[in-house]
């Protein structure tokens, strides 16, 4: 008589599976111990099943999945620290399948998106943010832009950067902690990443904005050395559609240039080998990009401003004081554990003052962090 999935899961979680030592080191004694270990490595257990395929080969192209196979002596492919490791274990009685955590995201989407960022420097996720949330952000942003426009611009003619206070829709966890966004972010900069920036970049309409110089948003981590894996990401989201039809100033990017040093960027530009491509999005879409990639803003020839928000996520050891987020105590007190973890290094304030239009992330700060702009 066959058992149902629930019965299989219950019996498997209690059954001890003895495994040999490797190089004299003891390995996990039971499925339960093993799954606990991987949970501590930022994995979450989804289900325990059997009578599936016999094994997962060493060449598994999906490192987000762990599979323990029955019968014994088959291979186990594990992604524990963003590297695919192949372990040989004697495992019987059950097959455990895990995926990297972030609530309800599709692991295949997150894997492909992270791979695209590693390869191209950016990717687009469609339909992430709810329309009503984007509408609320756009409504809240309009008076902030008016205050910012009362002061000189430092992003080029007709282009303004705004740091909105972390209140109202800007503190909404559907924005700051969206599982589809964090699933990709965690794969690139770690589960212990931090949220370090909330801002909006806006070229005004009617052609008053111009092409920006081609630039990267940060210098090299180790000047003179080869570029390292991703350590800082920008997540951009339009508060309006940014499309060819709108003609409202899409950002242009060069695929793969996040792996170039600033010196190589200068050489490629001088040789005419930088091929910038516009990135078009609709409201609700997000662009996740490595901030080292070469890009530029383009003129907004529509009749209205084109605000595009940015969330900055980085490895936990990277500090960016020029874009710090002042976290109101009231927001922190009601925040989820995940949001509290993301802003753990940001200053907490009892009350956020009214936005004045004066920006700390100004031209001086840009020059100190961009690693050079290329003309």
Number of strands: 18
Strand order of the largest sheet: 6-13-10-15-8-7
Q: If you compute it from the alpha carbons, what radius of gyration comes out, rounded to the nearest whole angstrom?
A: 24 Å
Main beta sheet strand tally, sense and closure: 6 strands, antiparallel
Question: Structural class per helix/strand content?
Answer: alpha+beta
- End-to-end Cα distance, whole Å, is 73 Å
Regions with little confidence, pLDDT below 50 for 5+ residues = 1-104
The amount of beta strand, in percent, is: 15-25%
Order of helices and strands: HHEEEEEHEHEHHEEEEHEEEEEHHEHE
Work out the oligomeric state of the chains in this entry. Answer: single chain
Counting H and I runs of at least 4 residues, what is the number of helices? 10
Determine the mean pLDDT.
77
Q: How does this structure look, described?
A:
- The protein has 375 residues and is α+β, with helices and mostly antiparallel strands.
- Helices cover 25% and strands 21% of the residues.
- Strands 6-13-10-15-8-7 form a 6-stranded antiparallel β-sheet, with helices on one face. The protein has a 3-stranded antiparallel β-sheet with strand order 1-5-2. The chain has a 3-stranded antiparallel β-sheet with strand order 12-11-14, with no helix packed on it.
- It is globular and about 55 Å long.
- The model is unreliable at 1-104 (pLDDT under 50).
């Amino acid at each position: 008589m066959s058992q149902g999935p629930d019965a299989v899961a219950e019996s498997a979680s209690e059954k001890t599976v003895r495994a040999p030592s490797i190089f004299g080191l003891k390995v996990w004694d039971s499925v339960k111990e093993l799954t606990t270990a991987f949970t501590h490595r930022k994995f979450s257990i989804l289900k325990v099943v059997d009578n599936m395929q016999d094994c997962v080969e060493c060449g598994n192209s999906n490192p987000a999945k762990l599979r323990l196979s029955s019968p014994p002596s088959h291979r186990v492919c594990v992604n524990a620290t963003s590297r695919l490791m192949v372990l040989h274990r004697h495992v019987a009685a059950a097959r455990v399948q895990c995926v990297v955590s972030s609530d309800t995201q599709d692991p295949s989407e997150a894997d492909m998106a992270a791979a695209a960022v590693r390869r191209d420097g950016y990717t687009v996720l469609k339909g992430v943010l709810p329309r009503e949330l984007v509408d609320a952000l756009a409504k809240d942003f309009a008076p902030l832009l008016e205050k910012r426009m009362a002061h000189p611009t430092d992003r080029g003619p007709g282009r303004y950067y705004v740091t909105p206070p972390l209140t109202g829709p800007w503190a909404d966890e559907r924005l700051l902690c969206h599982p589809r966004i964090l699933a990709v972010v965690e794969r690139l900069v770690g589960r212990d990443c931090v949220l370090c920036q909330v801002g909006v970049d806006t070229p005004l309409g009617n052609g008053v904005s111009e092409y920006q110089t081609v630039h990267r948003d940060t210098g090299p981590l180790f000047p003179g050395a080869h570029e390292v894996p991703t350590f800082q990401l920008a997540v951009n989201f339009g508060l309006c559609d940014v499309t060819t039809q709108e003609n409202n100033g899409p950002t242009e990017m060069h695929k793969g240039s996040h792996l170039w040093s600033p010196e190589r960027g200068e050489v490629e530009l001088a040789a005419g080998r930088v091929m910038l491509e516009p990135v078009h999005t609709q409201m609700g879409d997000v662009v996740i990009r490595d901030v080292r990639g070469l890009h530029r803003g383009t003129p907004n020839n529509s009749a209205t401003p084109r605000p595009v928000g940015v969330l900055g996520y980085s490895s936990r050891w990277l500090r960016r004081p020029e874009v710090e987020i002042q976290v109101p105590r009231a927001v922190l007190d009601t925040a989820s554990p995940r949001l509290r973890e993301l802003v753990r290094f940001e200053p907490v304030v009892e009350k956020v003052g009214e936005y004045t239009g004066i920006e700390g992330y100004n031209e001086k700060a840009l020059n100190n962090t961009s690693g050079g702009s290329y003309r």
